[in-house]
Write a sequence for this structure.
């Protein structure tokens, strides 16, 4: 019943009426409708391994009507584990309660690539998962199939519906501190990356788990960790790094893509990819013809936060084409009001004409389509 009311509310904002001049005028969104749509564009991290009615995330769900959450095992600013994920039964209960309290069914996202980037660790009682690099050593893709199927089934059992994987960056620079050095890339060969990512995505889709291919347009050639500083790949980027996205999209396998906070001045001499129309509109939407959801990498990463104020970055990202602003709230400083701040930034930007209302509607529609496709909502 809640979802029915939700969709009716959305539809009610789109009728046409005649103004005083008898011209057909499209009705704008009410403030409440606008805020509901904006809420769906927020993927937020939070503290807590359970949901109580006085907890921060309960209030955020009720007040901001967020579209999704991302769960972590490690809390960076507290320098300790058990942030959200402790063991399988606790994680399942947490996810159940998050969904129970939500205005509309949430994206429940997590990073489970395998190897060094895996929030569901064996030490907590989850399956051991090898790294992408190790998976791809088997040229038949049978290992990738088996490993990714394990991941997908475990995610489904716990109640997750989104995996912030696979990495489709090419391993151009094996010493790249955030990709190659962590064995997150399948290969330096674009066909190997495509073939393994294809299997990874199919195993997830078979289990009704959304995958998020990352990091567009490719940051495997970088020499700097974008968590810590700007990553300029102007002189190291290779054209074949974009091919896995093209091939995966041509096969209808891409529902969501995560952007990279990389700078390539040959494409855009002003903005990093996350904030760039040249990357997201000209290349991803127009050239590749991607129709799904574009998710920003963590908007709090230093590559963005050291160079842009938060309101500026969010406005640029949405105008560039980002549909979902992801904010881990898992940096050196935790902000319990972060979801409220992001919502207010977007709302005020629409009201002051810095973001067109139609951009919010476009993003909202794409988000809704993915949630319907994966049966998160009816």
């Amino acid at each position: 019943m809640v979802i029915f009311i939700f969709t009716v509310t959305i539809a009610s904002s789109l009728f046409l009426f005649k103004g005083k001049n008898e011209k057909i005028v499209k009705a704008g969104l009410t403030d409440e409708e606008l805020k509901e749509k904006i809420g769906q564009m927020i993927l937020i991290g939070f503290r807590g391994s359970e949901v109580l009615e006085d907890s921060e995330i309960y209030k955020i769900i009720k007040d901001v009507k967020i579209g999704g959450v991302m769960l972590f095992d490690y809390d960076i600013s507290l320098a300790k584990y058990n942030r959200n994920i402790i063991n399988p039964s606790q994680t399942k209960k947490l996810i159940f309660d998050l969904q129970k309290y939500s205005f509309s069914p949430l994206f429940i996202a997590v990073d489970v690539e395998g190897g060094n980037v895996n929030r569901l660790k064996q030490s907590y009682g989850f399956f051991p998962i090898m790294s992408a690099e190790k998976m791809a050593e088997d040229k038949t893709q049978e290992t990738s199939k088996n490993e990714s199927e394990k991941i997908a089934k475990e995610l489904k059992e716990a109640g997750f519906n989104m995996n912030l994987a696979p990495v489709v960056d090419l391993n151009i620079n094996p010493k790249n501190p955030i990709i190659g050095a962590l064995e997150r890339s399948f290969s330096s060969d674009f066909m190997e990356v495509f073939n393994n990512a294809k299997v990874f995505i199919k195993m997830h889709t078979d289990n009704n788990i959304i995958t998020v291919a990352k990091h567009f347009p490719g940051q495997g050639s970088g020499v700097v960790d974008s968590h810590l500083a700007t990553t300029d790949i102007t002189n190291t980027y290779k054209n074949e790094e974009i091919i896995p996205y093209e091939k995966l999209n041509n096969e209808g396998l891409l529902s969501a893509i995560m952007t990279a906070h990389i700078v390539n001045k040959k494409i855009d001499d002003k903005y990093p990819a996350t904030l760039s129309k040249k990357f997201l509109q000209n290349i991803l939407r127009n050239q590749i013809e991607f129709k799904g959801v574009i998710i920003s990498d963590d908007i709090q990463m230093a590559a963005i936060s050291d160079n842009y104020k938060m309101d500026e970055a969010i406005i640029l990202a949405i105008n560039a084409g980002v549909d979902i602003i992801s904010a881990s709230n898992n940096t050196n400083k935790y902000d319990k009001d972060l979801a409220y701040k992001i919502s207010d930034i977007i709302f005020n930007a629409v009201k002051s004409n810095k973001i067109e209302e139609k951009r919010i509607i476009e993003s909202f529609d794409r988000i809704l389509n993915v949630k319907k496709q994966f049966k998160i909502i009816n």
Residues 39-373 form a domain with the TIM Barrel fold (CATH 3.20.20.300). The chain has 13 helices and 16 strands. Residues 1-25 have pLDDT under 50 and may be disordered.
